[in-house]
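Weekly structure sync, notes
Attendees: PL (lead), two postdocs, one rotation student
Agenda item 3: pending single-chain targets
PL asked that the sequence for the first pending target be pasted directly into the notes so everyone works from the same version. It is reproduced below exactly as submitted, 255 residues in total.
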Amino acid sequence: MADKRRRKRKQRRRGRHSRLYLVLSTVLILAAVALACAVFFRVGDITVQGNSRYTDQEIIDVSGVKDGENLFLLRTSSIAGELRRRLPYIQDVSIRRLLPDTVAIKVTEGRAVAAIAQDGQWWFIGEDCKLLERSAARGGLPTVKGIEALVPAEGTYLAAGEDQSHKVGWLKELLAALGENGLLDKLGPVDLSEDYRITFVYDTRFTVHIPPVTEAGMNYWLRRFAAAVADPRVDANQSYTVEIMDEESLRFIPD
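Predicted structure, written out during the meeting:
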């Protein structure tokens, strides 16, 4: 019986030693891997893709990535956020580590789709209502009136005072629906002055009235509008006022 107890104690000690050995081995392996990453995987090359408005060097400078930095300690989400903030036309950023020493930055650039006048200058906005740049000239962009930007700054998103904040949402939904239905390229002036409807001009000859809130949603009605405009029964030489309401059909009223 005593021999049996001694054998069990030895087995327990061997088990504890085995677990301790496994833990120490794991720690040493992880430490070796971390040391190897710190010593060997350092930035030696930075590539940039997808850019046309900004140069490779501008993007690299704003990213803050330097040769010799530890490849695995780069805070890619912070870098992407800084690029979108300081280079407003950049919409999306992908940053990849390519072993052994490359950082690959891929950007997607947006475009200005409308302009808002304020204090004698123009603010260009993207489809998502991001303020892209301030300009002395309108740059041929469709104008937006009926809303005043609150403390505008490049790289921020359009905001308005409490009495107009709802119109920011209307404008964002409108621009998104126009973009999704391929209508942005021929967009004319947009008027948000009225509280019960949005007015915009399309292709210089369609003056469109649409409620800011409909049961079917703005995207649904603009999809219907895009299909109707392409219908050959719509006279290409006629101007129309288009009334969009929560009913089964659009009203094209010849001017």
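Discussion points:
- Residues 2-40 form the longest helix (39 residues).
- Residues 114-254 form a domain with the Rossmann fold fold (CATH 3.40.50).
Action: rotation student to compare against the earlier draft before next sync.
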